[in-house]
Design a protein that fits this description.
Layout: H1 5-25, H2 27-41, E1 46-55, E2 62-70, H3 86-89, H4 92-99, H5 107-113, E3 117-119, E4 145-147, H6 160-173, H7 176-192, H8 207-225
Parallel strand pairs: 3-4
Antiparallel strand pairs: 1-2
Length: 227
């Protein structure tokens, strides 16, 4: 992993400046989206979920933080009180929020606080952590990002293997030039709405399901060799 003035100091300074400017200059956008979420989806307007953050240098473990987004799904449950599948809770308005990435606007607060960076590997689910390889845990050697190398190279359209490969490549080669390139490509892709899937349309499914399947196949193959 490269050590540089940008990675160790300037990147964080720029994160604070630009996240603060975004919240200030686009406060009217936040207000409009919050009002529409309240009208179409109800309360709470903000959705929060615990996600793994940057590795703690002392413990080597990911420091969890609460990721903030605008709510994009209704709180619908079945007769037994269990939440309905995402596709049944995700409304047309929610799909618009996700496809335009407007649901991610509150993450500017995460960036300002230091939980996240503008550019870095996307923060995934906490329940994925036990299924990472030792190398894959290094994706958390930097702060998770609002956008990243994997997002501009296919976003949800790329396989988990490729996504993690892009994340690790970013960790090794983080620089001002690379971050600037990723930000510009993110803007272009957001405007074009390319490589975006919502709901169960995501082609690769959950990471933990994929890794459990791989482990089961490896175990079955091993048993076959000894029969």
């Amino acid at each position: 992993m490269k050590n540089s003035f940008y990675r160790n100091c300037l990147k964080r300074v720029l994160d604070v400046i630009f996240s603060a400017l975004a919240m200030l200059l686009f406060s009217w956008v936040y207000a409009i989206v919050a009002l529409l979420v309240r009208v179409f989806l109800g309360r709470p307007v903000i959705f929060s979920q615990l996600r793994p953050g940057r590795n703690d240098p002392k413990t080597g473990k990911e420091r969890p933080f609460y990721l903030y987004k605008f709510r994009s799904m209704k709180d619908l449950k079945d007769r037994n009180g269990r939440e309905l599948p995402d596709d049944e809770r995700l409304t047309k308005f929610g799909r618009i929020l996700r496809s335009t990435s407007l649901d991610e606007l509150p993450e500017a607060w995460n960036i300002f606080k230091g939980d996240m960076s503008i550019v870095g590997p996307r923060p995934l689910l906490m329940e994925y952590l036990p299924y990472y390889t030792e190398e894959e845990h290094h994706r958390h050697d930097v702060r998770p990002g609002l956008t990243g190398l994997a997002q501009v190279n296919g976003r949800t359209a790329v396989s988990w293997q490729k996504k993690f490969a892009y994340d690790l490549d970013y960790v090794r080669n983080c620089s001002f030039g690379l971050d600037l390139k990723i930000i510009l490509q993110t803007v272009i892709k957001t405007v074009k709405k390319s490589d975006i899937y919502v709901g169960s349309a995501v082609p690769w499914g959950r990471f933990d399901d994929m890794r459990r399947k791989e482990l089961a196949e490896a175990q079955n193959a091993s048993k076959g060799e000894h029969t």
